[in-house]
Amino acid sequence: MNLNVDKPQTFIEFLPISIFGAVMGLCGLCFSWRLAQKMWGLGYLTAELIGFLAIGCFIALTCAYVAKIVTYPSAVKKEFSNSVSVCFFATFIVSLLLMPGILLPYFRQLATGVWTLGTILMFLFAWYVLRKWIDNQQKPEDALPIWVLPVVGTLDVPIVGLNLQNDGIREICLLFFGIGLVFTFILLPVVFSRILFQKPIPISIQPTLLILTGPLSLAFSCYERLTGTQDIAASVFFYFNIFLLLLLGSKIFLIPKTCPFQVSWWSVSFPLVAITIAAFHYAEHQPDLIHQGIAGILLVLSTLIITYLFAQTLYLIVIGKFVPVE
Question: Which long-range contacts (CB under 8 A, 24 or more apart) does 254-261 make?
């Protein structure tokens, strides 16, 4: 009798840290609907329901991942030590930075505490990943879009932080804005170089190319909030990012083809809502039909994509096919 037959992975053992990208997407969608409510008087209840769904998902996924740490520590260690998969740990930290935006109208002190924890973790994580890259020679083919998550994720700190209005927070936000913006200009050329001069990225992870639209969306929103103006630099960030979305947006339609289920599908959600939020902010200063139309189209698209991803993920979990068969 062969006693060495590999057992199939359980749900907990398979659960990747990248699933927290779903929380990021839902948080951003909540913010988008709040802006739609502010601009057009739409979706107050929709926004709050999405927000608390995001918090519920975060709690459930955190409990599940803690169970994985306790039950399968070697699997977590392997995920964290890999130079590619380690980048996805940023999704958990960014979730901590975004959820306070949902909590702020209801629980200000809790929101401030969660944001502070996320800010500290983001600084330490960005430092750790950069040191890991510097101390170990990286392979050109490993320069994937997810490389922007650990360091450029620092741009998420001011998104909610500037709403807290506590002493010293503006300077903290400026610190993280500077780190994120400069590394955006460093890492985007590296990733585009890999795309242009290395072998093509597998179709199953090509939707992650949309991650490349995220940094400039966040940079635009942070810059506008920090300066209080929408000048030519802000317009450059916004319009180039719209062009980048048009260039890479077709990768969304590869999602149904990347079967079996890929958790990387969720990687398209936050970049979409980030550019949707940027479009709403831009339309506040340019309230013409075209710019409001862009914001509206992006809101509908983001809502449809995230609804599809959520329904597909929940369906596969319920029928027991969330874990791919190897």
Answer: 254/203, 254/206, 254/207, 255/207, 255/308, 255/309, 257/203, 258/203, 258/204, 258/205, 258/206, 258/207, 260/321, 260/324, 260/325, 261/312, 261/313, 261/316, 261/321, 261/322, 261/324
Residue 320 near residue 75 (C-beta atoms within 8 A): no
Alpha-carbon span 217 to 152, nearest angstrom:
11
Q: Are the C-beta atoms of residues 301 and 242 closer than 8 Å to each other?
A: no
Residue 320 per-residue DSSP state: T
- How many Å apart are CA 150 and CA 89, to the nearest integer? 8
* Token pair recorded at residue 228: 């209080």
- Rounded CA-CA distance 264/203 in Å is 11
- Interatomic CA distance for residues 125 and 65, integer angstroms: 18
Domains of the chain by start residue, with CATH: 12-30+84-310 (1.50.10.150)
What's the CA angle centered on 91, arms 100 and 236, to 5 degrees? 80
**For residue 154, which of 186, 111, 184 has the smallest C-alpha distance?**
184
Q: Per residue in 244-271, pLDDT tens?
A: 998 887 766 666 655 555 776 787 899 9
Spatial CB neighbours of 133, under 8 Å, sequence gap ≥ 6:
83
pTM of model > 0.85: yes
Q: Is the pLDDT of residue 3 over 50?
A: no
What separation in angstroms does the CA of 258 have from each of 254, 262, 310? 7, 7, 16
Whether 44 shows a pLDDT value over 60: the answer reads yes
Q: What is the tens place of the pLDDT at every residue in 105-137?
A: 999 999 999 999 999 999 999 999 999 888 888
CB count within 10 Å of CB 73 equals: 10
Q: Tell me which amino acid residue 50 is.
A: I
Tokens for 87, please give them: 């980048």
Nearest CA to 48 out of 31, 24, 60 is that of 31
